[in-house]
Design a protein that fits this description.
about 290 residues, mainly beta, 1 helix, about 60% strand
């Protein structure tokens, strides 16, 4: 899901990590806001890094006087998921964020520090989990909050409510994932970022496997789309905010010994319709690893 302001994008990345995985590995979305898996009863520790670049200015025609604005963000995320029982999992995540920006006048700015933490609870009831020896259907609704643990120049500085309703269907070597999700934002100093609703879709396929090495190699393609409302300043709509977008993200995942996973994904825009004049996300690269316990 794409928000037009990068702190909300970082939140989406974290939501994509603060969930758990079953001992029987199967690839799941890397970029999606509710990625990783639906299964409870297993703990998870994860680290990832993201590189986000925005340098295409939408909503303008012709040349722009002065320097062309741009923004780059590097994120290192740490998270853990802890099973309460077979159905309920609690998770927490916190990022370290570094940004570099340049406006149309050529003035540059940098910011870095601890970002905003996410706390999430996921309930995956023991229904429809196994439809046959090689078929599985999962449903795992989740809800949580983002808290302003970082400085305002690193995040929104508001308390926000997050939710997702992911489904996953697996049959033999192939799997399909669908995860509607959203974010209801609070206010900070009179500013409220636009609420976000989106969906994450993914198709995956087991390309290679080795019983001797206890390893599996998956290829996948994700579609991440979303609608962001306009941000508001003391209840007045901000013109250059909000919009619609759709991204594609091919990726690969490598599972080793039913416990360790390594992954990488490259996200690029397919379509964007942003309100006013805004920087568009040109690309995002995510690489990470996680371990089950």
């Amino acid at each position: 899901m794409r928000s037009v302001q990068w702190p909300a994008r970082v939140l989406g990345l974290l939501m994509g990590a603060v969930v758990t995985m079953a001992a029987t590995a199967h690839a799941l979305p890397i970029q999606g806001s509710a990625a990783q898996t639906l299964f409870s009863g297993v703990g998870l520790a994860r680290v990832f890094t993201d590189i986000i670049r925005k340098e295409t200015l939408l909503g303008t025609t012709g040349d722009i006087p002065g320097s062309r604005p741009k923004m780059e963000a590097q994120v290192i995320g740490l998270m853990g998921a802890f099973p309460v029982n077979e159905d309920l999992t609690l998770a927490a995540a916190v990022p370290y964020v570094r940004t570099e920006a340049r406006d149309s006048s050529g003035a540059s700015s940098e910011a870095s520090g601890i970002g905003e933490a996410v706390f999430l609870a996921r309930y995956s009831p023991d229904v429809f989990k196994r439809l046959g020896p090689s078929t599985r259907l999962q449903f795992g609704p989740a809800a949580g909050v983002k808290v302003p643990t970082g400085a305002d120049n690193i995040g929104s500085g508001s308390y926000d409510f997050i939710w997702d309703l992911p489904f996953q269907y697996i049959h033999k070597k192939a799997g399909i994932y669908a995860g509607p999700a959203g974010q209801l934002n609070g206010s900070n100093s009179g500013v409220r970022q636009g609420h976000v609703v989106g969906v994450n879709l993914s198709a995956e396929y087991l390309a290679l496997s080795s019983e001797k090495a206890r390893s599996e190699f998956y290829v996948m393609l994700e579609l991440n789309g979303g609608v962001a409302g306009r941000s508001r300043h003391f209840n007045q709509a901000i013109t250059d905010s909000g919009g619609n977008s759709l991204f594609a993200a091919p990726g690969i995942q490598y599972f080793l010994m039913d416990r360790f996973t390594f992954e990488i994904s490259y996200q690029l825009p397919l379509w964007e319709n942003l309100n006013g004049t805004q920087l568009s996300q040109d690309r995002k690269i995510r690489a990470g690893a996680y371990a089950l316990f």
